[in-house]
TrEMBL record:
<dbReference type="InterPro" id="IPR049899">
    <property type="entry name" value="Znf_C2HC_C3H"/>
</dbReference>
<keyword id="KW-0677">Repeat</keyword>
<dbReference type="Pfam" id="PF13913">
    <property type="entry name" value="zf-C2HC_2"/>
</dbReference>
<keyword id="KW-0862">Zinc</keyword>
<dbReference type="GO" id="GO:0008270">
    <property type="term" value="F:zinc ion binding"/>
</dbReference>
<keyword id="KW-0863">Zinc-finger</keyword>
<keyword id="KW-0479">Metal-binding</keyword>
<protein>
    <submittedName>
        <fullName>Zinc finger protein 474 isoform X3</fullName>
    </submittedName>
</protein>
<feature type="domain" description="C2HC/C3H-type">
    <location>
        <begin position="114"/>
        <end position="143"/>
    </location>
</feature>
<dbReference type="InterPro" id="IPR026319">
    <property type="entry name" value="ZC2HC1A/B-like"/>
</dbReference>
<feature type="domain" description="C2HC/C3H-type">
    <location>
        <begin position="41"/>
        <end position="70"/>
    </location>
</feature>
Length: 143
């Protein structure tokens, strides 16, 4: 009885677990790494909510803000919105990188807050889209 246990114990401890463990680590890294590395980091524009590469966002943002002002000025007063503010996220992860996810989430929320709900159907639209939409949006007629 005792010898069986010892044999089993020694086999478990020396051979299989280590190999398995290494294989597991390999598998985990093979599964998790590509999705994190292959996808280049993107930054969500806090104005329009679209994703841009880390380099193009700095070009896009001022242009987007300009466009936003142009569009906002064309809107009827009741649809004009306060200028979107760049959300400041100061969560820096342990590695010293900005927490991109938190940053993007804040930017996305900021962009979403730009949307205006249709007073007929309640769906949210960008103000210029809302004007177009409301031309065809008819209140449901209760029969
Ligand atoms: Zn934008
Ligand atoms: Zn509507």
């Amino acid at each position: 009885m005792g010898s069986v246990c010892a044999k089993r114990g020694s086999v478990d401890l020396t051979c299989c677990p280590r190999e398995n463990a290494e294989e597991k680590v390999k598998n985990v890294s093979q599964i998790k790494m590509p999705t994190m590395i292959r996808r280049p980091p993107t930054i969500v524009c806090y104005i329009c909510g679209r994703e841009y590469g880390t380099k193009s966002i700095s070009i896009h943002e001022p242009q987007c803000l300009k466009k936003w002002h142009n569009e906002n000025n064309l809107l009827p007063k009741e649809l004009r919105r306060p200028e979107p503010k760049k959300p400041e996220v100061r969560t820096i992860s342990a590695k010293g990188f900005y927490d991109l996810d938190a940053l993007n989430e804040a930017a996305w929320k900021s962009a979403q807050s730009q949307l205006v709900p249709c007073n007929i159907c309640g769906r949210t639209f960008l103000p210029d889209r809302l004007i177009v939409h409301q031309r065809s949006c008819k209140p449901k007629v209760a029969k």
